[in-house]
Amino acid sequence: MNQLNALESALDTLQQVIDADPIDNDQGSKPTPCADFTIDDLAKHIIDTHNLLLTGAGGDPLSDNGTFSERNSALSTAAIKQWTQRGTDGTVDLGGNELPASLALSLHTLEAYIHAWDLAQSLGRPFKPSDHLTSDMWAFAQRFINDDVRGEAAGVPYGPAVAVGAGASDAERLIAHSGRNPHWPSDS
What architecture (CATH level 2) is domain 3-177? Predict the structure, then answer.
């Protein structure tokens, strides 16, 4: 799976989680596997992350108009279009951090994947990424998520890795590697 196809697959998975049922106002304050985020906080973070990565790739940020589903869908479409036009040569500026464009594209995919899982767990919805996407993201996460991007302080992207058993799936390993309990909330 090439990087653009992986991003499209992750964004589709995220949209499927969002659209499985309407997210009502009562659910917004529910906790998520991201200890610092409620569902409303996570939705805002997802949109902010999309906008950061879209503008880093040279696109224009989208407004905050519409529902979470509408904004996520519009940003997903804009991101695919922008990354298709831009390609992965050179670097991008992500809020003052210069990164190789190919790394930024993979980060966008990883963020969409992990946060789709977060939402699915929080809302009790299916999370059904393709096996190929899961395999690609697990391989990327093993290279990217290290002690430099881990910690328990606010603002640190990933928490300490969570131990999983030898029979864990790649999806469980990926989620645990990102600092989340893959059996949340039952084993929290």
Answer: Up-down Bundle (1.20)
